[in-house]
């Protein structure tokens, strides 16, 4: 009898500890399903005031973003910059990006091998990724993210389905998104002072990185298409 009472008490304590997180999950899900227009003001209005709860709430939104195109990830990065000091904002946004990359990767990994063909039929530019021959999978994961020629979730599903190793996929993806994370958090931090050199400097640097990475990607793709070399491998293909 006493063991049953102790078990009930433990369950009660566990429920009370989990209650804030359950509440945040319910709020995030309601916000996602409510049809309310997502904006920075909307996100900030629903975010809890306590820093830890705010970080958890934003991570839940990052998770929901991975399942929906309705919520731009840069909006969440900017919200991090508004809500937290810059180092904390970068940390939360980086963790959120990792969450956003992880969920669709494992959805793609668990899907059948026909997903690759279906994705390529719908998104012709995925064939460019397939044609890139390289043994450096980390570099490929980084390059495709920093260039941003395809929707984030589509690339995640594809690379998960083609069994790109998760560690290389995640590290390359996070590094590829890092310029956007830094820009958005700085913009959020300086949102009330748009005359700040930090505000415009972050945007200018991000534009330069975007232009440079696009030029490099174009050169790299042409080099790969010109023929195999010593570093060439096989195209990424789904594995059974």
Name a few traits of the molecule:
mainly alpha, 11 helices
Please give a structural write-up.
This protein has 240 residues and is mainly alpha-helical. It has one domain. 75% of the residues lie in helices and 0% in strands. The chain contains 11 helices and no strands. Helix 5 packs antiparallel against helix 10 and helix 10 packs antiparallel against helix 11. The radius of gyration is 21 Å and the shape is globular. About 3% of the residues have low confidence.
Cα distance spanning the termini: 52 Å
Radius of gyration: 21 Å
Helix content: over 70%
Oligomer: single chain
Tally of individual helices: 11
Short description:
With 240 residues, the protein is mainly α. 75% of the residues lie in helices and 0% in strands.
Task: Map the helices and strands.
Blueprint: H1 2-33, H2 40-46, H3 51-65, H4 73-83, H5 86-110, H6 114-122, H7 126-131, H8 137-147, H9 152-161, H10 166-189, H11 197-226
Helix pairs in contact: 1-3, 3-4, 3-5, 4-5, 4-10, 5-9, 5-10, 8-10, 8-11, 10-11
